[in-house]
């Protein structure tokens, strides 16, 4: 910060680096204040500056500031690059304004939208509880044989959890396997949660079993899935396996284990 303040000339790149540094260190308020300082003093700002500022607004979920930033981009006549379009749309979704997000995306012909944009739309609908609309978009993309990436599949698992539809969960898993995409720990984690929430913890267990590389997140999720489905003893057995094999665990793991212990105690009390 001292080096930055000592610089006599600060161009837009310098400002962007400084704002981004605040955001990366989770000092969102400072980053947003610096952006607002640039705007109020009519200093040089480009689309990268706006893109960085949207990260802070998404963190605060401040709809008023979201609208101000969008109005600023329109006033400045900024070109809507795919990255800026995605950031602004995602910003409105995160702030709970679905209609404004859709208006931004409607500025581009639907056929030219990238898979990243579709992912934001599916996830945005899901985050705002509009699962059926998210599902319709996914089905439309399937019919058009759009090439999905891992993020798409992860987003759609959230949609299915919201719909609580086991049949859709099984069809999605089949579709993923047929696509040939690698089942990474990230995707496996989402699938395990999806099946567990839809009442099929057995499939969650199979996904966990077949995953070659398991990290602490996957282990924690499996313990939580079992605890949520009242398989408390199995949940604790996995934790014992972690300890016996020196597999690291974290605070989230312990929270999940605690849930299993409480559930097991309650079950034993009910039997008594």
From TrEMBL:
Write down the InterPro entries for this protein, in alphabetical order: PPR_At4g14850-like_plant (IPR046960), PPR_rpt (IPR002885), TPR-like_helical_dom_sf (IPR011990)
What PROSITE patterns does this protein's entry cite?
PPR
- Start and end residues of the PPR repeats are 11-45, 114-148, 215-249
The processes (GO biological process) annotated in the record are: RNA modification
Annotated signal sequence range:
none
* GO molecular function terms noted in the UniProt entry: RNA binding
PANTHER family referenced in this protein's UniProt entry, alphabetically: DYW DOMAIN-CONTAINING PROTEIN (PTHR47926:SF533), PENTATRICOPEPTIDE REPEAT-CONTAINING PROTEIN (PTHR47926)
Q: Which NCBIfam families match?
A: PPR
Q: What is this protein called?
A: Pentacotripeptide-repeat region of PRORP domain-containing protein
């Amino acid at each position: 910060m001292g080096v930055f303040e000592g610089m006599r000339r600060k161009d837009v790149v310098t400002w962007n680096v400084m704002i981004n540094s605040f955001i990366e260190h989770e000092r969102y308020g400072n980053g947003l204040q610096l952006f607002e300082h640039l705007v109020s003093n009519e200093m040089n700002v480009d689309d990268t500056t706006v893109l960085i500022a949207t990260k802070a607004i998404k963190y605060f979920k401040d709809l008023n500031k979201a609208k101000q930033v969008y109005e600023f981009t329109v006033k400045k006549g900024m070109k809507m690059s795919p990255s800026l379009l995605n950031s602004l749309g995602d910003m409105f979704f995160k702030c709970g304004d679905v209609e404004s997000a859709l208006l931004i995306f409607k500025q581009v012909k639907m056929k030219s939208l990238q898979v990243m944009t579709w992912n934001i739309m599916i996830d945005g609908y899901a985050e705002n509880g509009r699962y059926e609309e998210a599902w319709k978009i996914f089905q439309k993309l399937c019919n058009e044989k759009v090439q999905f990436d891992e993020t798409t599949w992860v987003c759609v698992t959230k949609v299915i959890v919201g719909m609580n539809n086991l049949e859709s969960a099984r069809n999605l898993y089949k579709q993923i396997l047929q696509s040939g995409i690698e089942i990474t720990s990230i995707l496996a984690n989402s699938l395990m949660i999806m099946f567990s929430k839809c009442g099929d913890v057995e499939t969650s267990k199979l996904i966990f079993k077949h995953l070659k590389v398991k990290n602490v997140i996957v282990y924690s999720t499996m313990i939580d899935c079992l605890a949520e489905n009242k398989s408390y003893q199995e949940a604790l057995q996995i934790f014992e396996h972690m300890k016996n094999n020196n597999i690291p665990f974290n605070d989230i793991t312990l929270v999940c284990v605690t849930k299993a212990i409480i559930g097991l105690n309650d079950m034993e009390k009910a039997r008594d």
